[in-house]
Amino acid sequence: MDTLSKVSVSSVYVHAPFCSRRCFYCDFAVEVNSSGDLGAWTEALSGELRAVEREGVFVISEALKTLYVGGGTPSLLGSEAMKSLAEVIGRNRLEDPELEWTAEANPESVTHDLVEGWRKAGVNRMSLGVQSFDAQVLTWMGRLHGPDGAVRAVKAIKEAGVHNLSVDLTFGLPSRLNRCWRTDLYKVLELDVPHINLYGLSIESDTPLGRSVRDGSEVPVNEGQYRDEYLAAVELLGNAGYQHYEVSSFSQPGFSSRHNSVYWDGRPYLGLGNAAHSYSDSYRRWNVRDWLSYSALATETGVTWEKGEHLDVASRSLERLWLGLRTVFGLPIRDLDDPQRLIIESWAREGWSVLEDERVRLTAEGWLVLDRLTLELDNARAG
User: Which of 87, 170, 284, 324 could form a disulfide with 331 if both were Cys (CB 3.0 to 4.6 A apart)?
Assistant: First the structure.
């Protein structure tokens, strides 16, 4: 059995799995529950955290730098949820004035009281799952808010004192919906939020959407439309002053996601909750996916994680390339060998990358084929 080295983590992800409804396209680890279960959630997290501390592999820093509560729909857990979470993690760990504490919410469950309660607990950044402002699209997705829901939610969040706010939109929807992507982009700009995430629709096999594609009742978007929508967003948001700092992420100056940067930089982090992942250098592990199985383990022994995996040199190298290329910082050319340098020079000729300041950075066109380019660069590695 491999001996695991201790690692100090100053970034923690916490999964809140509850959703009022599973969306048409969703493959996330969610538990359908109309109001969530705050007591069961905090009890399970407490049990897992005690086991993590007994094990001693992931050692939580005395002062966290980032905390991210995702889902699921954390806002279903109510205004006291983040106060309860702080008690589980330890209030003393959340006192760093530079802490970035993000919590996700959906528009239909956002109220002034909810945000105020979260802010008082320490939340200083929120991420709002909007996806679209088109009524037909929202219905097709299975979302519970209407076109005006996002506007009301953003207003409530700002009025309650949280101004570091991110909004998620989804592009690449089936053409039959006749969704006007530019209209959604203009509407999100009207909200004047400092951060926007754009996610291309992913068709997962074990979802209603995946089954509909298999039986022919839904036709995925064609590659050309997907490309056009992505590039239109890059141009429009860039002209509006947003920095495109990662393949899916756009921010006004000073508002990039510090927590997500931990993932992209390959720094260690701890994941708590069902399906949450933890990582340290050459080791990664994950918790059981099902909420009921997770909560039972958490309250019995606290050991909720599966065996995990040790990353060999080749896997670590591939991951380093993929993570580096997905951000605006790219990769240092000095770390590439001669065959790889020939590859990135060919990318530049195709318009997929730029070579400057001794680094290679992908363009928006390059980010559209990120996975293919990463494999190409990895396969070109000498030896």
Answer: 324
